[in-house]
Every structure is written in structure tokens, then in C-alpha cells.
Amino acid sequence: MCHPLPRIVLSLAALLITAAVPLQAQQADTPPPSQETLPTADLLEGDAAEEEGGSAEQMAAPAPEPLMQMGSDWPYYGGDAQATRFSTLDQITPENVARLEPAFTYHTGDLPTGEAEGMYSPEVTPLKLGDDLLMCSAMNILISVDAATGEENWRFNPGVPNEAIPYGATCRGVTIYTDPEAAPDDLCATRVVQGTLDAKLVAVDAQTGAPCEAFGENGTVDLWQDLGERVPGWYAVTAPPTLARGILVTGAQVLDGQAEDAPSGVIRGYDAVTGELAWAWDLAAPEQNRHGPPEGETYTRGTPNMWTMGVADEELGYVYMPLGNSAVDYYGSNRSEAENEYATSLVAIDVTTGEEVWHFQTVRNDVWDYDLGSQPTLLDWQGRPAILLPSKQGDIYLLDRETGEPLTPVEELTGLPQGKIEPDYISDSQPVSAWHTLRKAPLTEKDMWGFTPIDQLWCRIQFRRAIYEGFYTPPSAERPWIQYPGYNGGSDWGSVAVDVERGVIVANYNDVPNYNQLIPRADADEVGLKPIDQVEQRAGAPEGAGDPQSGSPYAINVNAGWRNDVTGMPCTRPPYGGIRAIDLETGETLWDRPLGTARRNGPFGIPSMLPFDIGTPNNGGSVVTASGLVFIAAATDNLFRAIDIETGETLWSAELPAGGQANPITYEVDGQQYVMVTAMGHHFMESGVGDEVMAWALPAD
């Protein structure tokens, strides 16, 4: 998994210059001229090319359950079952959005204490069902509030301890399941399910918050089973389970960079009523461990995990799981063939059997931590069922939902550098989307920036000191190397929104490099870099900042966002993040603009209060409405915005008490449309700490 960049303090000179940047359409940059592009013919792997009609298991699968419908509700993390983040509501329009006023603010009461100080990154997106908002807090307190007033209905605290926090205390959301066999008034006929930081699935009644006693043991399923030694913080669930055909499918975050002998990245499906294990997909031992490993053994250690949100196709009975990298991100020569085959891939799994259907790999032999962090989106594209897949590198792919075959052009970068560390492992070619990419042109020395000529010179010296050979520059130990895009480039957990009526993709993105250096094992041992199972106390730090990578010859140190050590200034010129509208039919850019002002940023961490749109790092996605509005927070200026989807113009904004690094929602109660975002801050984005759930609506008249 990767984590968001810290808030990047911005150059005053950069602010003045970029204030004049027009918000006009900009076409996506093409790959560097030195990197030849050739058609990719063989990216798809797996058994997707089987005969039409599917397997016997698929033919015998139960009929899909009816889906909860979008409109007045927001019943899924991605809005609808397809994860489009598109709402049919249109009461709030570009003409009246400036009249929005606060409807209510609810406080969860979940704020960091003790060792959790400086480690909160909630990222929560509530669901709305009927009259209720259903959500989790950073530490997995389940909460229901009235969707019109914000009055609390109930809460359930599963008692997650601070020691369970991995990099950050995060719960992105919950999953709702209605049992078709239950009477409407039965306890847990409709239930709320979450995965927790201490690796449990917890199910409670949606009406009362009472535990679903028939689910697992008194409403709880232990996900540590068959993983090996329990090490708090090493294995944690931060995303809502994916639901299909009565099966809850979950992966987990495995704390990156600790050791090759890490907990397994196994993906498991559980019966949504009983909590019983339905199947397990262990990519290195899929048949042997289908129903759990043999007695005394564990799921395969150190395999790529699935920490983000999946999506399900009820009709096909498939769940689509975006995989991350192996347990050691920046060294690959020790990896198994199975790890090399599946790391950084989208995998389609038959939810009725737990068998792989197909997988599509976006990075070969990934040593850059380019996990697939975005939830995919299901849509119909030119008459075919498709799945849209964004990546951290900025590439956006459209694949056939049934087979995984690319529906839009995919090309091949060839002649890539191999470096000196493991030239026999680094792939000399990589796939890229020729349909659309958010990726910009390679860096040059003139892109180095600073508050004064002195610190700009410092950054230029650092640029010359480092190894940089463009996109996919391999890791280095003798000198630092520049990774661009960084591990938080392109799209991350906020994913994209798709206006299915206008045929427009809305994608916000980061555009910042990392400044990395491998640390030889002897040097890592000398400074005491140890994995999580060998340390007594941990402190939150950006991923890769002194990660031991035990079992490999190198530890890793990453300067995330590449900041000047003295001023805290970024070493590259702004903008550092933006938002773009893309034509779904053609892949062409409609408009592209910086996202985020300089109001909270400045040299030495001093806010400039300047309102210029310079483009800050941003994490968390958007929601699009039928009236043509894009609602988004995400940026480190802590503003919640409404943007015109036709022009990219900001039509309304509201100041948040802490960062909104979460996906907003919109819903309706008694004919009134609301927009909502959680303003809880984010420690890595340095956007404050809060516990607010905030809603806006038009005046009653």
C-alpha cells in the first residue's frame, strides 16, 4: 500500500507565477520521445479465453440478488453498485449551488489519544440508506445518524486498540447487506459490516447497532486465522468488503516495507449471514488453500495484497480486486514466479467458487510501489460490459469485464533502463495506456524550484546528484534516484467519477516525484532499521521512510514529495495536483486545471493565505451529479468545492475545519438534496485533525 504525501509547502515565487496559469484544456503528455512505443499484444493472462457459457460452477450459480438503487440513497462506497460516483439528483444546479448553506455538522467524538497522536487518517465515506447515514470512524466505531438532522441513532464500539494502527487509523467505509431470507423485522435482516484495523469483520444490525450474533462469533470474524503470528499493525483492514451474491470479499493492508516474511495477501470470501469462510484465493497456492491452508500451515507469506476497494458484477458473479505489490516494494529478485505474475494486477475472481477468471497486469516486476489503489468502475462502453481501471502511474485502462481484454489501445514502453542493483530482474518494457494518461512529461533540471535562488540551487544540485532516466528509473543505492510519478502519483483510493449521462470521466490526481535511495543491509542494521515484529514501539512515518525490507539486501528511504530539507519547500515547480475531465468515448481531455489553493501553504510551514489555484497534493475523490456539478474536497487547502463539469470553473466552496481526504456523497431526504463530506483531516497530508461529518443543502425556500 502507499500513503498520501505530506502537505507540501509552496514557494511564494511559485504562487505568484502559477496564479496566472489559465484553467484551459490541456492534453495529456505523451511518453518521453526516447522511449519507443510498440503495440502490446499479450498483457492478458489467466483463463479468460475459455469457451462461451462459462464453467459448470458459473452455470449453476444462484441468480443475482436485487441491487440497492441509487437516487435518494448512497448505498455503496462508490455510490452505486458500479462505483461510478454519479448521482441522478439534480436539485442543486450550477445556477443555484452558490446558495448552499450548512445543514448540520455531526461529531463522531473519535479523536487521537496516546500513541495514536499524529496517526489519524480516517478517509471515511458514509453510506445513506432510508433515513440513516451509516459510517465508521477512524478507529472503527460504527455509527448511525439521522440523514436530515445529524442526530445520532446509535453507535457500536468494537474496541480496537491503538496498537493496531498501521501507518494510519483509517476506515474508508462500511458495507450494507440485506438478507433475502429474513423477515424485515428480524434482527440483522439488514446489517452493516466493516473490516477493522485489528483484522476482524464486524456485523451489526442496521436499525439498532446490536451485534449480529449468528455472524461468526457474536458478530465478529477473526481474519488473523491461518496468517501466522499476530503482530498488531502489520495486517489491518481499511476498506469496506466487496459484496456479491451473498459473499463478503475482503483483502487487507499489509504494512509495507517490513519483511519478505510478511502476512499473506490472501483474498477471502465469507458468507454474509453466517460469517463462514466460503473460499480463499491465495495467488501462490490457489487450489491447496482454497478452503484454508492444511493444518499447521499458513496462507503464503509475503504475497501482494488487496488493500483498497473492489467492485462486483452481480450478473456475472465476478469480483474485481486491484492488487498491490509484494511485501518488499523496492527489491524484487527474491520474489516467486507467482508474485511476479500477479503483483500490481487487476484480478477477476468468480465469487461462487473463489477461482481466478482473468488478471491484467499494469506493471511488470514492480519495484516502485505502484500498487493499484483505485476502486475500478463498471460501465458499458461502445456496447460492451467494461471495467475502467485507473493507476498510480496516471494510466487509465478500459477492459472487457468478462475477459480482461483491453478495449482501448495499450502500448509498450521499450528500451527502459535496468540499473545496477538487479539488472536481470528489472523489466526492459512496460505497458502503458495509449487511450489516456494523467502522467506529465519527464522532469528536467529547469523544473527544479525554490523559495529563493539559494534553495532552488540546492534542488538543482540534488537533481544532478540523483539518477534520473525518466519514467521507470530503477532503484539505486550508490546515489539517490528520482521516481516520477511518485508512489502517490496519478489516481489513488479516491478513484474517479463517471458522468454516465454526459459520458465524462472526472479524475483528480497528484503530480509529484519521490526522491529515493536504497540502503545496503549492513548500513540498515547499523542504524537499527528493524521490521515491525522486532520493535517495541512504532511511530507514524511516510511509507518508505526508513523501511527495513528485512530478508532483502536493501532497506529503503523515500523523501515523499521530495521536499527541501531546510525550508520544507518542494523541489519541483507547481502545480502538484489537478483535476481533469476526460471524454469517455474518445479519451480526449476536455479541461484540466490545478486543484487546491495556497491558503494553507508557505515556506517553513507558514500559511501564505494566498487564494491562488496553484494545485496542491490531493487525495480522496469526487461525486458528479446529473445537474452537471462535481463536488470534491481532497486538496490540502481544506476547501470543499462545487465545480462546473462543463467548464472546470469553481462555482462554490466552503472552508472545512480539517482536511476532507475522503470521497463526498449526495443524497435526498423528503425531497431535499444534501451534499456531504467528512472533514477529519489526515496526518500524512498534514491537513489537521477533526471528527466532523458535514452536510449542506439549499435554503428551505
From TrEMBL:
Q: Which family is this protein grouped under?
A: Belongs to the bacterial PQQ dehydrogenase family.
Q: Name one GO molecular function term.
A: quinoprotein glucose dehydrogenase activity
Q: Which GO terms describe its cellular component?
A: membrane
Co-factor(s)? pyrroloquinoline quinone
Where does the record locate the signal sequence feature? 1-25
Annotated stretches, region: Disordered: 49-70
According to UniProt, the name of this protein is Glucose dehydrogenase
Listed Pfam families? PQQ
Q: Which keywords does UniProt give here?
A: Oxidoreductase, Signal
What PANTHER family has UniProt attached to this entry?
A: QUINOPROTEIN ALCOHOL DEHYDROGENASE (CYTOCHROME C), QUINOPROTEIN GLUCOSE DEHYDROGENASE
Q: Where is the Pyrrolo-quinoline quinone repeat domain?
A: 74-675
Q: Which residues form a coiled coil?
A: none
- Report whether Signal shows up as a keyword of the record: yes
